[in-house]
Amino acid sequence: MVTIKSKREIELMREAGRVAYLAQKEIEKAIKPGISTFELDKIAETVIRACGGIPAEKGYPSGIKGVPDFPGSICSSINDEVIHGIPSKKAILKDGDIISIDLVAYKNGYNGDCARTYIVGNVSKETKRLVEVTKQAFFEGIKFAKKGNRLGDISHAIGSFIEENGYSVVREFQGHGIGTKMHEDPGIPNYGKPGRGIRLEPGMTLAIEPMVIMGKPGILELDDGWTIITQDGSLSAHYENTILITEKEPEILTII
């Protein structure tokens, strides 16, 4: 069931989004060659807890027998890692890397979810373009995140933009509704046909998150049960914000 948030709930969603944004900004400041994803994880946790929140990804259940719950406060995915990379002292950033940081702040019963792909040091023009196109795909999508439009309008805009730029859409994972739970209805694919899906209504809160592969489509799951990588070893980027459907333009809750 898709939930419509009350004015009070929207204020709580704004605060959760603010905390998530602040954690991303501190991580952005710390990104440099030589830092570990374990250190970035601690930065995020410190910021979120200092703001009175909880890192919602920490301890998130895998739901799979034999696979432990997620151990980090962030998902830290380097280069060909698409999503769900596990923070580690052994994962050291190098000049020329890109890293996607996905985090969720839970505060006062509500969640704020956002992801960014950061450039580490000096990267090629091709790599920089991948990151820029992935971010822009989000903004192309939310042009259609308006009252009366359909969910498929957002999905179509994202997928079309990605493919027109010569990249591949990750089809196995998608965006989602968000609120008291990290993942709520509806699921929001990054591809689709316009005019399909539910109609958008004011009060809906959605996590829109393009996941893009530089090379061919196709992903694999590592033995840790969490980390998803590109099948062909090509780079991947990820960009996400929590948004609110309003009477007019959408409001981004995880950008201040």
CATH class assignment: Alpha Beta
The CATH topology label is Creatine Amidinohydrolase
CATH architecture: Alpha-Beta Complex
Number of helices: 4
Structure commentary:
- With 256 residues, the chain is of the alpha+beta class.
- Helix content is 27%, strand content 24%.
- The chain contains four helices and 15 strands.
- Helix 1 runs antiparallel to helix 2 and helix 3 runs antiparallel to helix 4 (151-164).
- The longest helix is centred in the first third of the chain and has 24 residues, at 7-30.
- The two termini are 29 Å apart.
Question: What attributes characterize this protein structure?
Answer:
Creatine Amidinohydrolase, globular, five-stranded antiparallel sheet, 27% helix, four-stranded antiparallel sheet, 256 residues, alpha+beta
